[in-house]
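Hi U.,

Before I forget, here's the chain from the pilot set. I'm dumping it here mostly so it's searchable later in email.
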Amino acid sequence: MNITNIDDKIIKRSHETGKNWKLLAEEYEAEFWEDLNKLNVLHPDIKLRVTDKIPEILEFIEEIENKGFTKVGTDGSVYFKTTSYRNYGKLHNVVLEDPSTSEFALWKAAKENEPYWESKYSKGRPGWHIECSTLASLVFGSHIDFHAGGIDLKFPHHENEEAQSCVYHNCGDWVQNWIHTGHLHLKGQSEKMSKSLKNTISIQDLLKEYSSDQFRMACLLSHYRSSIEFGPDLMDAADKILKRLKSFKSDVKAFMNGLKVDGYIDEEALSIQFLECKKNVDLALKDDFHTAVCIGHVSELMKTTSRMINSTDNHSCLKSPAFDKVLLQAVLNYIDKLFETFGISESNSSKESSDEVHIDNVIDSIIKVRNDIRIRAKESKNKELFKICDEIRSKMADNQIEIKDHGNLSSWSKIK
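Structure:
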């Protein structure tokens, strides 16, 4: 990932606030990484900052100049001549009526009171597009398999990146696959979220109402190329999937621990659906990363499995407990790994804090005591003891804990 730590917006903000542009850029970057951490987004393996690579950027510009694709303005700014590059417009799939109007800056001559670096052209700084081409080329060279960005960057930013990079590397295609993501809209608004339109929600404000898992699941429920309408309906749908995941894991745990004695696993039916689910998820991911389809197939597998586990039909003569547990563990491991791959932190028990584990132990103890009371109530037919059990269930539900009774045993799961 390249870090743009010098551009027009940073300079403008520096003038408005009186802050040094370097300190301002560092503050913005620190806030960016902090937001990624809050959203459980992995950091890139390599981070390159524009101001650390000015000599390399100038070398890139000079090579394009040597090949005859630049012109120098009267102020010392350097521009890429799109009229000289016959494939310009290939990403946007348009033919420009007047290509000369699409010339873009490779090097911008500094204005008064602006930061600058020395070059043979002028005192100035890199243009926006050239920094991306240079920094990516330093790492990947003349061939990039995947390049991602918002759909609004397709033209002119990515078009310009591709053009100047193909000239520099003397290749037909610099990037093999472009991944353009859709925009995030507030419900009822057609414009994308933008600071200039004042219709944004900060990560900090988002996480006051929703968890990072809920937001990530909302994204997974939409194809990455599609725009997302952010609002209560979408977040409720995401929350339901996460609750289903928690309930499913609780059911499997209860069955494996012998708490759901009436549950019946139809081995053949579940095995067939499990294999179909894995195949369909694999196909969906190969079909342009269609995560929404993946979530649909996994949800059906969880629903079927939970229905079997919670079955009250008596199939004791047909049961094969050992195989049931092997099959269930395989299903659980697969779903756990898939959601972990998708970045859903709650699907990975190793990421739970020690406090959460401690609370789980406390809840286990409460459920055990309540279960002892239930058994005594049954044996003595004591209605008052049953009322105590009901009151405990109600109080636990008030705290987002659902208790499920299975004969003489009980299990619990977090509602939220």
